[in-house]
Amino acid sequence: MANSAPRTPTIGGSSQLDRIEAQLGRIETRLERADPLLAQLPGLLATFGNTIDDIAGRDGEVNFDLRLRRALAVIVKLGDPGLLEALERLLEPETMAVLADAGAQLPSAAADPGEARGVFGLVGVLREPEVQRATSFLIHFARRLGRTLDARDSNSPGAVTEREEAQS
User: Fold this and answer.
1) Rounded to an integer, what distance in angstroms lies between the CA atom of residue 142 and that of residue 55?
2) What is the 3-class SS of the chain, one letter each residue?
3) Domain span holding position 21
4) 20 and 101 assigned to the same domain
5) More confident residue, 31 or 120
6) Are residues 41 and 22 part of one domain?
7) 104 in a structural domain
8) How many independent structural domains does the chain possess?
9) What is the pTM (predicted TM-score) of this model?
């Protein structure tokens, strides 16, 4: 009778140990992304405490209690994994750069909205290269957002594939 080492059970050609190691790697990556937020937690809690003290001093106990309950409800919602993933995507450097660029233009656009234009005036403005670039961006964004919303509505995966993106 030959002495053989115990075999690790396999699932779909991959050992359970490999699957566990892969899952641990994903968990480790997520925890590493949370480290900067956790490092800021003491300061955030101190700010939160100061804000609570200010509110309690102004509003008295009745409004303070209501505000505290609402704040805690928001904190519970912020713990939702789906929301956390969305916030992580929102805070990616590329996304923040686009938002910062758009935000930088809002005050000057609001201060000087320009003269009113009719349909023919709009067609003329669409010939300007910077307007064409911004319009192209908005159209591309609208298509991707529409696909994502359709996918969410049909309960299918919400990510737009590279092939779908190339077709647009």
Assistant:
1) 41
2) CCCCCCCCCEECCEEHHHHHHHHHHHHHHHHHHHHHHHHHHHHHHHHHHHHHHHHHHHHHHHHHHHHHHHHHHHHHHHCCHHHHHHHHHHCCHHHHHHHHHHHHHHHHHHHCCCCCCCHHHHHHHCCCHHHHHHHHHHHHHHHHHHHHHHHHHCCCCCCCCHHHHHHC
3) 16-108
4) yes
5) 120
6) yes
7) yes
8) 2
9) 0.42
Q: Of 2-11, 53-62, 111-120, which one has max mean pLDDT? A: 111-120
Q: Do 73 and 146 have their domain in common?
A: no
Q: Considering only residues 6 and 133, tell me which one the structure prediction assigns the higher pLDDT.
A: 133
Please, which residues have CB within 8 angstroms of residue 140's CB and are 6 or more apart in sequence? 168
Q: Do 104 and 29 have their domain in common?
A: yes
Q: Given this model, what pLDDT does residue 12 score? A: 54
Same-domain pairing of 25 and 100: yes
Q: Can you give the pLDDT at residue 136?
A: 94
**Amino acid (one-letter) located at 98:** V
Place of tokens 């990556």: 29
